[in-house]
């Protein structure tokens, strides 16, 4: 722009010089020269103003260009920062996506396991229903036996026990049925329960069903003696299984000595015996106290002592404690200790009790 104005001014000067050179001969030289000089100064003033105006415009454009350049530079920096942020965000989202995919796979696996456990639970519930039906059948059978033997009940103390037993049997079955109901409700209320915890509840469910079966079998055993199924067994394992059959109050401690001995016995029947003895010991403590179980190997025999920290048994009750249907409780059939005594005697063993502290001592030969 500056070069353009420069050339324009030079052109004006040359034009003025040309005019001076072409002055008509008839005009006075001084007059023409003054006029041309004035005109030249005028044109130069205009050219100078235009140059100053253009120069100011150039400076303004340069300033605007500089500001625009800085603005574009800042925008470029911001864009780079945003691109970097978006790249980091994309990387983070990718990791989150991988983590979600892993968790989805774990959930799918858990879903499959839960489905399998649900199937197992349904099967167990079906078994419970079958067992309830069997109980009803057994109860009906007992009722029919009572009707058929009603004429002989007056002459036979054992058949009299059956008559009272039929009326108490429903109560004896409530505890395992209540356990089954509670376990099912707990499992249904916790759909996201861990597999290990579910397996523990399934164990309780299975043991409750087995306990119901044992109770029915024990009643039948009292009515009719069944043959023993003998096999070599750990007496410590039998006692542990007996403990597992019981819901132990929080304020009761069960101590089992870790001594062990193998005996030839019917482990199912002996499990029922020790379950009964430990439950009686817990009840004697009024749900607050200690139950100690000791195992002693006496060579040919094994001695098991179940001791509780309760108040003890009244002296007038002690001689009757193993009699059929004798009980000091408001509920129960009074058959528990009588059945225990029968089972132990089937094994050619013996059971006794002493006070202060109350201790039941079972003696069992290693080879019945």
Provide structural commentary.
By secondary structure, the chain is α+β, with helices and mostly antiparallel strands. Among the domains are: 109-223, no CATH class; 231-365, Heat Shock Protein 90 (2-Layer Sandwich). 66% of the residues lie in helices and 11% in strands. It contains nine helices and seven strands; from the N terminus they run ααααααβαββαββαββ. The protein has helices at 2-21, 29-148, 150-153, 157-172, 174-189, 195-223, 235-244, 267-284, 336-346; strands spanning 231-234, 252-256, 262-265, 289-297, 301-308, 350-354, 359-365. Strands 2-4-5-7-6 form a five-stranded mixed β-sheet, with helices on one face. A hairpin with a 4-residue loop joins β6 (350-354) and β7 (359-365). The relative contact order is 0.06.
């Amino acid at each position: 722009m500056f070069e353009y104005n420069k050339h324009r001014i030079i052109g004006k000067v040359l034009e003025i010089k040309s005019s001076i050179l072409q002055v008509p001969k008839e005009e006075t030289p001084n007059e023409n020269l003054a006029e041309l000089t004035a005109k030249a100064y005028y044109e130069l003033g205009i050219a100078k103003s235009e140059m100053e105006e253009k120069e100011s415009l150039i400076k303004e454009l340069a300033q605007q260009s500089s500001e625009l350049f800085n603005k574009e530079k800042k925008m470029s920096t911001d864009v780079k920062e945003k691109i970097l942020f978006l790249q980091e965000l994309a990387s983070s989202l990718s990791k989150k996506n991988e983590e979600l995919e892993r968790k989805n796979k774990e959930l799918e696996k858990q879903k499959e396991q839960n489905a399998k456990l649900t199937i197992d639970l349904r099967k167990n519930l079906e078994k419970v229903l079958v067992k309830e039906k069997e109980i009803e059948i057994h109860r009906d059978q007992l009722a029919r036996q009572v009707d058929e033997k009603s004429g002989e009940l007056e002459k036979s103390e054992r058949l009299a026990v059956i008559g009272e037993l039929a009326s108490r049997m429903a109560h004896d079955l409530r505890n395992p049925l209540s356990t089954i109901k509670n376990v099912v409700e707990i499992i249904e209320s916790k759909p996201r329960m861990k597999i290990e915890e579910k397996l523990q509840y399934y164990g309780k469910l299975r043991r409750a069903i087995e306990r119901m079966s044992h109770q029915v079998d024990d009643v039948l055993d009292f009515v009719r003696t069944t043959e023993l199924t003998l096999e070599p067994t750990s007496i410590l394992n039998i006692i542990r299984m007996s403990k597992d059959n019981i819901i132990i109050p929080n304020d009761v401690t069960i101590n089992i000595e870790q001594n062990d001995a193998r005996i030839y016995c019917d482990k199912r029947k002996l499990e029922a015996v020790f379950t009964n003895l430990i439950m009686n010991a817990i009840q004697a403590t009024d749900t607050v106290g200690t139950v100690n179980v000791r195992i002693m190997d006496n060579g040919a025999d094994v001695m098991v002592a179940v001791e509780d920290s309760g108040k003890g048994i009244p002296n007038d009750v002690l001689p009757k404690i193993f009699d059929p249907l004798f009980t000091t409780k408001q509920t129960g059939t009074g058959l528990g200790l009588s059945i225990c005594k029968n089972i132990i005697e089937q094994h050619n063993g013996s059971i006794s009790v002493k006070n202060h502290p109350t201790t039941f001592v079972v003696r069992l030969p290693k080879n019945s």
